[in-house]
Amino acid sequence: MAINLQKGQRETLSTGNFTVGLGWDTNESSTGVDFDLDASVFILGENKKILSDQHFIFYNNLQCPNEAVTHTGDNRTGDGDGDDESIIIELAKIDPRATEVCIVVTIDEYEARKQNFGQVRNSFIRIVDNTNNVEIMKFELDEDFSIETAIEFGRIYKRNNEWKFEAIGSGLKGGLQDFLNKYN
Q1: pLDDT tens digit string along 133-176?
Q2: Is the pLDDT of residue 12 over 70?
Q3: Which of 15, 73, 97, 105 has the fewest CB atoms within 10 Å, measured from its CB?
Q4: What is the side-by-side strand order in the sheet with 134-141?
Q5: Whole-model pTM?
Q6: Residue-wise DSSP of 108-144
Q7: In the chain, at which residue ranges do the beta strands (DSSP E only) sit?
Q8: How far is 80 from 184, CA to CA, in rounded Å?
Q9: Mean pLDDT of the 115-137 span
Q10: In the prediction, which pLDDT does 57 show?
Q11: How does DSSP classify residue 13?
Q12: Residue 127: which residues within 8 A CB-CB, separation 6 or more?
């Protein structure tokens, strides 16, 4: 049975081969234009900085060099049930210098479209074991992010040679460039 996480909760990952599923719904009448939310991954070293440009995984770079992290592609509308975007992670393949994998979601063209996460609902991040397709943990973001346009949903980190997941749910007013500035 899946663990339902609370903000800040940390759990040990029981598998090294899993999919991170991210989902959300948008309020139809909010702005009159479609939302395009984008999941991105930053693979960081001990210094909390991206290992290289190739370790920044997003819609224009779907895979890191050793194929440890693979983004399955950009969902430009978020329509449908279930995961809107997915990231496959194989920890056995991850660069040995990596100590953290941060997962963020940003709103494309948020300024021009006058959009923020206050207009997004039913947001979640979940981890599914790829060996048996069973959901092992899920974190539902239930805060009202009324001015935030980017959210760090969660992070996978290594402590004492063990990989863990932490439910973050921390927003900021800005976009993908702000996360790049933070981790570069």
Answers
A1: 999 999 998 877 888 999 999 999 999 999 999 999 999 998 89
A2: yes
A3: 73
A4: 3-5, 134-141, 120-129, 17-26, 85-90, 69-71
A5: 0.91
A6: TTHHHHT--GGGEEEEEEEEEETTTTEEEEEEEE-S-
A7: 3-5, 10-12, 17-26, 37-44, 56-57, 69-71, 85-90, 100-107, 120-129, 134-141, 150-159, 162-172
A8: 34
A9: 92
A10: 96
A11: -
A12: 13, 18, 19, 20, 21, 135, 136, 137, 138, 165
CA gap 78, 57 in Å, rounded: 19
Cα–Cα distance between 109 and 114 in angstroms, integer? Answer: 8
Q: Are 126 and 139 in contact (CB under 8 A)?
A: yes
Taking alpha carbons only, the member of 165, 151, 127 closest to residue 9 is: 165
Question: For residue 1, what pLDDT band results from cuts at 50, 70 and 90?
Answer: low
Q: What is the pLDDT of residues 48-98, one digit of tens each?
A: 999 999 999 999 999 999 999 999 986 655 555 678 899 999 999 999 999
